[in-house]
Amino acid sequence: MPNKKKIPFRQVLTDLENTSKPFPPVHLHRFSDLEGQELQDFVRSWGKIALERKINLLESLEELAESDDLLSFESVGRSALEDANPTIKELAIRLLWENPSFDLMQKFLNLVSAKEETLAATAASALGNYVYLGEVEELPQSKYEMVIEGLFDIYNSTAPKLVRRRALESLGFANLDEVKEAIQVAYESGDKEWVISALYAMGRSLDDIWNPAILLNLKNKDSEIRFEAIRAAGEMELNAARPDLMMLLKDRELDKEIRFITIWALSRIGGEGVRELLELLSRQVEDDEEAEILDDALEYMDFCEGVSLGELFSIDQDNLNEITGDQIVEDLLDNLDQENLNKSSEEENSEETRHQRKRHKKHGD
To answer: Is the pTM for the entire model greater than 0.90?
Structure first.
């Protein structure tokens, strides 16, 4: 059977301009890697597209890019960044998140001072990419100093709290004494939102000085603070957090978001018993969303060649099918030797170095 003829890109743009009918999602892939005449046609058509259509397009492209890393909508993002509408600019920054080109850094620095709070905050968050690149020596020193100075200017300004918080979070990557001082001030402020940002920055820092604060907040009664502490423990690959995180999954009433971030953090930390626990949960899970989270976690552990120790458990693997999901999880967790786990965590922590692999994830309210 012959292949269907490819729809001309100009027809795709015509469909985008036509608000009398829905834009076909099948066309979204056509906006990847735009160049040459197609890019010129897109730029010329941009002014004819209704605002709502622009917003829907950029949101859809962002979602598509997150599900398929072979797609690149950088050309679309760059074009949209020149739009006068602040919402379009914000969405453009998000679309350009995975492409921290040097020439965009100054644009983001300029937008940090925008009047629109969410736009300025998004620009401040995007600048974290450049701080990270500077820390791994993939950004010229002059540009690194420029982005650090720009973020500190915002952090020390009278800008809205959200923008200043995002500046601190981006600075979290920097191994600088003044950044550590800023994180400490935010953490000790007593302001919940600043504490959350401080924990987020701690996770990015990969600095062991924050271990006590992160461990302490794994049991914080405030779910948002607890969430960020768990995330930070995962980013830090904090072995000492493993026992508490594994025991968290015993709570069947645990908030879904806390449960998901706990699974994610454990997959990053790895070590004794983690693989077995996640595999058992994966075999017995009934919630589709949690099943996907568990699959992703196990795939990550496979990629990192995580090592597990099955001897911690007394479950007869031949009889797994005869045991209910709840019984499996309960038996598994009841057989965890908390004292030995803590001991092994301390031993592994003593061998850890600053050469842990850094990871960078977007952060939003």
So the answer is: no
